[in-house]
TrEMBL record:
GO biological process: L-methionine salvage from S-adenosylmethionine; menaquinone biosynthetic process; nucleoside metabolic process
Domain of life: Bacteria
Catalyses which reaction(s): futalosine + H2O = dehypoxanthine futalosine + hypoxanthine
GO molecular function, one term: methylthioadenosine nucleosidase activity
Pfam families: PNP_UDP_1
Protein name (record): Futalosine hydrolase
InterPro entries according to UniProt: FL_hydrolase_MqnB, Nucleoside_phosphorylase_d, Nucleoside_phosphorylase_sf
Family to which this protein belongs: Belongs to the PNP/UDP phosphorylase family. Futalosine hydrolase subfamily.
Length: 204
């Protein structure tokens, strides 16, 4: 199977490369941070490879993430059931209205579960945001709005949109470097998250 694995930064790509198994043909793409860069880079890679007669069978977004406290722990592997764009909609004074409710598409893309069936981890929704949630108050609001969400990152929905438009199955695998909330970047455990990412990719 030909798999395109999309990572935001080089450190994540290296962790994925370290978990590469011979049973899959795996290309690793570094797309940059955020959903716009992720969608653009993924769409281009899919089109370029298809044009060269090396079409991908599946697209995976892999990287580190924040977890909702109580729903996952640092170093855990998170496997998305759905990739959900938490900012796509209308921010009303009293509530957030997802784009689905106003008839302009959806903020949710379902993930393929066959590819990740052997990957050990916590399964649930993974949110995509263009901005990292940097306070406990905002984290609590998000956790309330998305009771099934286990984590947040910044690229999943962008990669998923490019895959969906190309008719390709999509999976999102994240490993937890930090809890979502008050921002103490110094406390992020990149090592634990990147080690877990290598293990998770090996299990694909
Ligand atoms: O702001 C900083 O100083 C800083 C230091 C290290 C890394 C960053 C990033 O922006 C990396 C974000 C990168 O990692 C994913 N990620 C990890 N944890 C979270 C989170 O709690 N909320 C959202 N995204 C997260 C994300 O997918 C980015 O690709 C900044």
């Amino acid at each position: 199977m030909r798999i395109l694995v999309v990572c935001a930064v080089a450190e994540e790509a290296q962790a994925v490369e370290a978990g590469r198994a011979v049973r899959h043909e795996l290309d690793v793409l570094v797309c940059g941070v955020g959903p716009a860069a992720a969608a653009a880079a993924t769409a281009r890679a899919i089109a370029d490879n298809s044009g060269m007669g090396r079409a991908y069978d599946v697209v995976v977004n892999a990287g580190i993430c924040g977890a909702f406290e109580g729903r996952a722990a640092i170093g855990d592997v998170l496997i998305a059931t759905d990739s959900v764009h938490a900012e796509l909609g209308v921010a009303l004074p009293w509530r957030f209205q997802p784009i689905d409710e106003i008839g302009f598409g959806t903020n949710r893309i379902g993930c393929n579960t066959v590819l990740t069936v052997a990957v050990e981890g916590v399964r649930g929704e993974i949110l995509t945001l263009a901005s990292i949630t940097g306070s406990d108050g905002l984290a609590a609001q998000l956790a309330h709005r998305y009771p099934e969400a286990i984590g947040e990152a910044m690229e999943g929905f962008g990669v998923a949109t490019a895959a969906q438009q190309a008719g390709l199955p999509f999976a999102e695998i994240r490993t937890v470097s930090n809890f979502i909330g008050d921002r103490e970047v110094g406390n992020w455990d990149w090592d634990a998250a990147l080690k877990s990412l290598t293990t998770a990719i090996r299990e694909l």
